[in-house]
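Work package 3, deliverable 3.1, input record:
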Amino acid sequence: MRGVRVTINFITPEGDKKTIIANKGESIMDISHTHDDIELECACEGSLACSTCHVIVDPEYYKKLEEPTDEENDMLDLAFGLTETSRLGCQIVMEKDLDGITVTLPSATRNVQLKGSKLS
Amino acid sequence: MEENEPNAKIPYQRLPEWLKTKVPVGANYARIKSDLRGLNLHTVCEEARCPNIGDCWGGGEHKTATATIMLMGNECTRGCRFCSVKTNRTPKPLDSNEPENVAVAISKWGLDYVVLTSVDRDDIPDGGSEHFAKTIRLLKKKAPHILVECLTGDFRGDLDCVARVANSGLDVYAHNIETVESLTPYVRDHRATFRQSLKVLEHVKKIKPSLITKSSIMLGVGETDQEVMDAMKELRKIEVECVTLGQYMRPTKRHMKVYEYVTPEKFEYWKKVGDDLGFLYTASGPLVRSSYKAGEFFISSVLRKRQQELGVGSGISEIRE
C-alpha cells in the first residue's frame, strides 16, 4: 500500500536503533509485523485484550498522540515496565505529524530470562 | 546463552527434526473439513494451528478420525501469548443452532470419543456454560455410546458455571493450567490465574467425584524443572487424574518466542514423573496436546472398565431434555 511515507525509529531491547520507512495509516503493530527485524508481539491482534505490544514513546512525540481510550489504559496498566510515556503499539497509527518518532521496545517486559537460571 | 543478563536476546531456536510434521492430505481430512464448513462449525485444530491435524483427522493407525470441535465461534475474548485463535472483545453472538449441529455432526462421524472445547466468552454472563452444557446433553441423547471429553475455560472462576458443565453428562472434564505458576502472568491472558484454574478442577471433583479430570502443561516457555514438578504435584493434590505435557510451538510471529525445545527424552522423563506421582494417565511428548488421541484410547478403556464395574451406561441418567 503506497501512500504518504513517514519515518519511525525503533530502539530494540538490546539497545539497537532501527529506522523504518512506513506508510501513513499503519499502526506500530502493523509496521513491526512487516519487518522481520522488529520483534513486537501482539497476542490479541489489536483488540485491546492484552499488553504485549507495549512500547515506550519518546516524550516529544508522546505529547502529539491522541489520548488513550479507557480500554487502552486498562490494558496498559497491566504492562510490565510501564512508564509515563508508554502506549500500546496497536493503538499508535502513523500520521505525518509523527514523522521521525522513536519508540523503545521494553526490555523487562516479559523476558523470562530475568527469572533466574534454568535447571535441566 | 547468558543467564540473568537483562538485555540478552532469546536466541532464535531452530525447529528440531522431531517436531516436523507432514502436510495434511487425504479423503478423511477433506471430508471432515467439508462437514465442518457445511455446518458452520469450527475446530481448535484449525484455529490454533495444531501440528497434529493431518494425523488426527486422517484417522491414524486405529483408523478413527477425531477432531476437537470448538464451540461458541472462532473469536475469543482473551489474548493469551501462545494462542493464535482470533481475539475480539465482542465476538459474534452465539449460534443457537450450534448445540444441535454439533450433536448431528459428531453422531454422523461414527466416533467413539470426542473432545469439545470452546473459546472464552467473557462477554456472556454465564461464560457460555449453558450453551456448552446443552451441547453435551444433546450429544449424549443422540449418541449415548460416545465418550465425551470437554476442555473448558475458567469461566472467570464462576463455579456455578463450572458445575453447569460438569453436571451435563460428560465423561472427562479438562481445564488447562497451561504453564507453571510463576509464568502464568507472563504467558496467559491477565484474566486467568494458576490458582483460579486449580479451583475449577478442584470444584469439578468436589461436585462429581466420578468424573475424570484432566489438565495440560506446555513446556518450553522458560519454566524450571522444579516448577513443573510443583505444578504436577498441585494437580495431584486436587486429584486430577490425567495430565498431558507438550512442547509450546509458536503459532505465528505475533506470538511469544519458544524459549526452549525440550527433547523427547526429557518428555519421557516427565512421563515417568507423572506415573510416579500417581496420575491415572500421563501423556508426554513434544507433539502431545490436551486432546491428543493417544490419551483418548487409554481413557476410553478406563472409562469402559469403570462402567462395567458399576454396571451403568455412560451418562444416560444425566440427560434432562
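Residues 70-76 of chain A form the longest helix (7 residues).
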